[in-house]
Amino acid sequence: MELGVSVLPPLPKDATDRNRTSPFAFTGNKFEFRAVGSTAPIYFPNTVLNTIVADLLAEMTDQLEKAAKTGNFNKALASLLQKYVKEHKGVIFNGNGYSEAWHKEAAKRGLPNLKSTPDALHAMDNGEYKKLFAKHKVLSNKEYTAREEIMWERYVKQLNIEALACVDIARNQILPAAVKYQNELAVTIKATEDVVSANNTGSKAVLEDVVENINALYAGIESLKKAHVSAAGASSLPKQAEAYRDQVMPAMLKVREAADTLEGLVNDELWPLPKYREMLFQY
Predict the structure, then answer these.
(1) Angle 133-139-142 from CA coordinates, rounded to 5°
(2) How far apart are the C-alpha atoms of 273 and 256, rounded to whole Å?
(3) Fewest CB atoms within 10 Å of the CB: 39, 47, 132, 240?
(4) Least confident of 56-65, 86-95, 226-235, 248-257
(5) Cα(255)–Cα(260) distance, integer angstroms
């Protein structure tokens, strides 16, 4: 392969595992996606990448073919590669791509940082992207728009199902178990006080923790139900998606927070679901 130079500098091979710190690593001759969920097949991201590469190669080929006719191929190649590196080197980052440091560095470099699916789908609605896919006969405008709408609908439906499941599990399984444990504690404390006059502050403190988190769980469930109704009634798929992201997901996290705390308080025999330590260590 003619590179236009007679000597190359030493090029040490990086022996480290880039996949540990990069969610989208280039590993010598391919890109690798890391931490992709089982419901997120990567065929479409690969389609996008291949289309981008095809477009860039077509652009480079047009310029280099013109240069070859004038006998300036090597000079044109070197100039073209320098141009691309200067224009796009900002996307190269060899630190920890999962860290907050990269978020700050990306902002400093002026790179987009789309932190949610609705943000990404809004960015997808771009006429230039539609032209690119149509140009290479990958997707027509209609096909592109259809996939865009399907992605909006999928996001909304998934969060709708998750919100309803969250309410159902919290309301019908976790809350009754916690209330039953609360009752057992209250009965035990009362019976103890009827028999002995010893200090019973420990048992009362546990009961107070349980009561406090039952109240938090109930309040979280009610807030989640209201947020879900509000999100489901939004006027369009994008507005629904944004409402699920901004209202429903935070409400689900509040329910999760109270439920996780109760998991560490409620008697194992009463808890209706496998506890995390049981799943991790198979007690």
Answers:
(1) 115
(2) 14
(3) 39
(4) 86-95
(5) 9
Distance CA 280, CA 163 (A): 25
Cα–Cα dist 121/149, whole Å: 9
Whether residue 179 contacts residue 208, with contact meaning beta carbons closer than 8 Å, is answered with no
- Comparing CA positions, the residue from 234, 264, 272 lying closest to residue 153 is 234
Residue 197 pLDDT exceeds 90:
no
Considering the entire predicted model, what is its pTM? 0.82
- Angle at which helices 201-232 and 141-169 pack, to 10 degrees? 150
* Phi, psi of 17, rounded to the nearest 5 degrees: -85, 95
Asked if 136 and 55 touch (Cβ cutoff 8 Å), the reply is yes
Tokens of 25: 């690593």
Q: DSSP labels for 28-80?
A: SSSEEE-S--TT--SHHHHHHHHHHHHHHHHHHHHHHHHHHHHT-HHHHHHHH
Q: Coil, strand, or helix at residue 122?
A: helix
**Euclidean distance between CA atoms 21 and 164, whole angstroms:** 35
pLDDT above 90 for 174? yes
